[in-house]
């Protein structure tokens, strides 16, 4: 049996600060940041990302290609893809599942009215079963190439999205979309019921905020690897990890300084990239290939 290994490496994991910080890297191979490998890894989770719980239960050797094609077409079919947000949502989904062991409560992309439409609300709706109850993880992502812009835009959304009226509307939408055959459906529906005080619901909510940006630390490492015959040495690896940590902790400081809402638990997840444009191009190329194969 093939063993599934984690693809993403958590270089920084600090739960002692508020909000907790995770710094995640896709790693390097043959002197390059693993752009194409990350694109492949993200699509490995496309069924869980794009299809409903009931559809996923029907996935088998007979239905597999049909359902993969359906999942791929739900992402988008447009050629105007540079500024679309679905790939960021897919990255958030994979990071939550792989690093934080969450379970998908519902696939919001499943409810698109059209393949090129956008879906409002939180970018991920996951849960964590902690043994005594459910934690509801409502994710936000900004798949950007500039961290300052990502912080500016996501902090504004955080304030909007924890507004009582907005949350009640979001919970109402979630209630209508939860697959009743999912084992956690009764408990989650009870937890977010309109008769439950938001003060109580807030105690069970975590908002993971995933931000990407083109990273100077990653770029410096790529430049170093391309010209260093000792690129695999432990000294250079540790120097990169130190530069990476310094960079993401500085990013955490900028995030906190932007003025965060205090009602809910927030977890900051920074994913420094080499070049966002290259990753988007690699993801688009793989998406179109899958769409053609399964057409």
TrEMBL record:
It holds the Pfam family HamA. Residues 11-287 form the Anti-bacteriophage protein A/HamA C-terminal domain. It comes from the Bacteria. This is Anti-bacteriophage protein A/HamA C-terminal domain-containing protein. The lineage of its organism: Bacteria, Bacillati, Actinomycetota, Actinomycetes, Kitasatosporales.
């Amino acid at each position: 049996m093939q063993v599934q290994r984690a693809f993403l490496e958590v270089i920084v994991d600090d739960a002692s600060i508020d909000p907790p910080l995770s710094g995640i890297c896709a790693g390097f191979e043959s002197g390059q940041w693993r752009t194409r490998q990350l694109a492949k890894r993200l699509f490995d989770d496309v069924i869980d990302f794009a299809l409903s719980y009931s559809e996923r239960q029907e996935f088998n050797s007979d239905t597999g290609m049909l359902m993969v094609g359906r999942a791929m077409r739900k992402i988008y079919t447009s050629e105007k893809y540079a500024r679309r947000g679905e790939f960021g949502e897919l990255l958030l989904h994979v990071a939550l599942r792989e690093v934080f062991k969450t379970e998908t409560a519902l696939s919001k992309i499943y409810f698109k009215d059209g393949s090129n439409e956008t879906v409002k609300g939180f970018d991920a709706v996951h849960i964590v079963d902690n043994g005594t109850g459910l934690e509801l993880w409502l994710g936000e992502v900004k798949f950007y190439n500039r961290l300052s812009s990502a912080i500016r835009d996501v902090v504004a959304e955080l304030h909007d999205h924890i507004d009582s009226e907005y949350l009640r509307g979001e919970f109402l939408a979630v209630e209508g979309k939860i697959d009743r055959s999912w084992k956690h459906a009764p408990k989650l529906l009870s937890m977010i019921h309109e008769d439950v005080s938001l003060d109580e619901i807030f105690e069970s909510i975590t908002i993971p905020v995933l931000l990407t940006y083109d990273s100077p630390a990653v770029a410096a490492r790529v430049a170093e690897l391309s010209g260093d015959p000792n690129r695999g040495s432990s000294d250079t690896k540790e120097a990169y990890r130190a530069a990476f940590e310094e960079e993401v902790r500085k990013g955490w400081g900028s995030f906190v300084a932007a003025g965060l809402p205090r009602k809910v638990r927030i977890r900051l997840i920074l994913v420094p990239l080499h070049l966002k444009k290259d990753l988007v191009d690699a993801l688009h190329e793989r998406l179109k290939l899958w769409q053609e194969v399964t057409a």
